[in-house]
Structure prediction request, 167 residues.
Amino acid sequence: MRCPTCGFENLLGSDVCDNCGSDLAGHDTPQRATEFRGELLGESLDALGMSAPETIDAGADANDAIRRMHDKGIDCVLVTEDGRLVGIFTDRDAVLKVAGQSDGGGRPIRDLMTQDPVVLRNDETIAVAINKMAVGGFRHIPIVEDGRPTGVISARDVFHHLVDALG
Prediction:
């Protein structure tokens, strides 16, 4: 642990600096990061200009979801029950859970979806979305208001927005 007074590198957990004698107690405790207000990454998710998400009822057949994804050229559908988000079904789910099965995925989507996905709100920032994607290893995150899906953000959306903004 580096002494904040003299810069001497002490052993982690030291209470007193071995060089200058300064009190180190509490200086190795992680401090809350300052709030990020960068111009680009601090923009709200609304800046990405997302369209309405493609949703499907949890009882629908997985083949219907896959066909809809293929026809519309999208990577995921949001799974709902009574209009509330209960899961997400992505192209990765289709490959890992359906491809090569003898029934071709003729099961309800609720059996194959990722349940209780990590979600975002419209007022969250692009930086928060990037962090959640990186930490969770996600390429898609639903955006919800009061439990109802209003959009979906993809890593591709974020990347294109950043490239466009940076010229």
In short: The longest strand covers residues 84-90. The radius of gyration is 23 Å. Strands lie at 55-57, 76-81, 84-90, 114-115, 140-145, 148-154. The chain has four helices and six strands.
